[in-house]
Amino acid sequence: LVGAEPPAEVPPMFSQVEVDENGRIIDARFKTFGCGSAIASSSLATEWVKGKTVDEALQIKNTDIAKELCLPPVKLHCSMLAEDAIKAALADYKLKQDPNKEESEKKA
């Protein structure tokens, strides 16, 4: 879940990815309660990550999303949220693959 907490103006956004045994993203989903630009940004980001490895998907930038959708400057935060949501979903996936990593980082 990314986005500012209430009562902020930025709606929350959530993304989820499914990765196959070869490390490729086979599905991605999102949920947002935002404007059309937020929905379009999230939708595009989830489509772009499908078929990519986790590392390839991490290379997607909000500027690429904004350019593809021709977002006006006032809507750039929507593409930023989409990038943040994908990165959060991928970080969650990586953590679930190696739960001991978080424990070792806490001890360090």
- In round numbers, the mean pLDDT is 85
Q: For the terminal residues, how far apart are their CA atoms?
A: 26 Å
Proportion of beta-strand residues: 5-15%
Low-pLDDT ranges = none
**What is the second-level CATH architecture?**
Alpha-Beta Complex
Domain NIF system FeS cluster assembly NifU N-terminal: 16-97
Protein name: NIF system FeS cluster assembly NifU N-terminal domain-containing protein
Pfam family, one: NifU_N
Organism: Balearica regulorum gibbericeps (East African grey crowned-crane)
Structure description:
The protein has 108 residues and is α+β, with helices and mostly antiparallel strands. It is built from five helices and two strands, in the order E-E-H-H-H-H-H. The protein has helices spanning 36-49, 54-57, 62-69, 76-97, 99-107, and strands at 13-19, 25-32. Strands 1-2 form a two-stranded antiparallel sheet. Helix 1 (36-49) packs across helix 4 (76-97), helix 3 (62-69) crosses helix 4 and helix 4 packs across helix 5 (99-107). The radius of gyration is 15 Å and the shape is elongated. The mean pLDDT is 85.
Question: Could you list some keywords that capture this structure?
Answer:
single chain; 108 residues; alpha+beta; Sufe protein. Chain: A; two-stranded antiparallel sheet; 5 helices; 2 strands; 14% strand; NIF_FeS_clus_asmbl_NifU_N
What's the topology here?
Blueprint: E1 13-19, E2 25-32, H1 36-49, H2 54-57, H3 62-69, H4 76-97, H5 99-107
Antiparallel strand pairs: 1-2
Helix pairs in contact: 1-4, 3-4, 4-5
InterPro entries: NIF_FeS_clus_asmbl_NifU_N
Pfam families: NifU_N
GO molecular function: iron ion binding; iron-sulfur cluster binding
